[in-house]
Amino acid sequence: MDLERVTATPVPCHDGLGQVVRPLLYGLARQMAHLESCGTPRLADHVVGLIGTLLAEQAGADRSTEEDGPGVLTQRLLAYMEERLADPGLSPEGIAAAHRISRRYLYKLLAAQGHTLSGWIREQRLDRCGASSPIRPWTTFRSAPSADAGALPTRPTSATPSRRPTA
Fold first, then answer.
1. Is the Cα dihedral 107, 91, 99, 12 positive or negative?
2. For the segment 128-154, what is each residue's pLDDT rounded down to a tens digit?
3. Most buried of 56, 77, 95, 113, CB within 10 angstroms?
């Protein structure tokens, strides 16, 4: 979305999506005190998505990519996460925000593919570690034989001179 095209520009509220969003936002503002305990985070996710849709419509964004369905979005999510696997700050919140979806929907999309978010990230990171390591799982380690292999240390006896420094 071209933010310069929608920043500080009026959004028409007499038709289209603006006509739906405006009364909703006014109603939310008037009821804020009553909404604080009623699933506010989920509601906020939906309101942000609705405003994002309104701004995209205002900017004339091509919505065909979002109409491709959840399969395409899931592939975008997986590609996004794969590109950022080395980032220790990779989080559900960041991934969801980057794709303008809720965390719940993120989890749902990955579950449909048979993955959990943390499980997928862990598996991919482990796969990368294994792929970059010169050691393969079938490699065995053997210690090199030392010159005195098998020799046991002995205690000094009366026959063996002590190595104490003399003054």
1. positive
2. 887 665 655 555 555 555 555 555 555
3. 77
